[in-house]
Give the backbone structure.
Amino acid sequence: MPELPEVETTLRGLAPALIGKTVREVHIRQPKLRWPVPPELPALLNGQIIRRLHRRAKYLLIEFDRGTLILHLGMSGNLRIVSAATPLKKHDHFDLLLDNGTTMRLHDPRRFGAVLWHTGDAATHPLLAALGPEPLGDEFDGTTLYRATRNKTAAIKLVIMDQRIVVGVGNIYANEALFRAGIRPQLPAGKLSRPRCTALAGEIRATLTAAIAKGGSTLRDYVSSDGSPGYFQQEYWVYGRAGEACRRCGESVRLLRLGQRASFYCPHCQH
DNA sequence: CTTTGCACCTGTTGGC
DNA sequence: TGCCAACAGGTGCAAA
């Protein structure tokens, strides 16, 4: 479920509920996530104060004095703040109990998510060290994208989803940004002109920013005992609309498969 | 080194 | 209604 905007929304929802709180208990109900949840987490975290929260790509980083808890929501995960009395649901794998009686609860049916620990600077963790620039940061722009795509024959959609080129662009927003930039997903990356790279980098940024803004508007419901934590349904230009009329020109939206992922485009609006 | 496809899971959907 | 295959928004890693 979570693409970068959902992770960012989760971060913003969690931060005020977590920062400054002391961990009272840690419950690992299902240690078999993408990687084993470190069994020493309770000993490491009990009594520790949550200092700061960060996001790097789609990783959520919860910083303590002695290290960083690294969380990933995978394909189906979510994190919610619930009261201590909230009954457990199936796939509630991990709880962080706080000193004010609330709990941060990880729910992840498919278990592609992760709960890891790293001592010291989180940026040095093997999973984070090789990541490319943040799409919303200053280091990603048309020039970056232009340089990164030279001599690449791979489809542009695969390239913008490559975490070494730019992080956090998942399947939905890759499709949407390419539509908005007027670029077909299967176009060999190396064939993109510099102006088209500039346009695409801008649309990646704009698409993600707009989705975060949408998510932010539902944040007031974030800390609740039931219901979905502010996941937002928005209208897509092409994603999931194979065979339907293009919202811009009416042409039938096409579906193709790139790197085993469904890819959508309008043959009239994208070239 | 780069590029490709698999693997990890459960839940939902659509065709027969 | 039941059954089964296909697919799902992520992404690291082994294999080529």
User: Anything to note?
Assistant: Residues 218-231 of chain A have pLDDT under 50 and may be disordered. Residues 1-3, 6, 34, 58, 72-76, 110, 112-113, 127, 161, 163, 170-173, 239-240, 261-262 of chain A lie near DNA strand C (CB under 10 Å from a C1'). Residues 194-216 of chain A form the longest helix (23 residues).
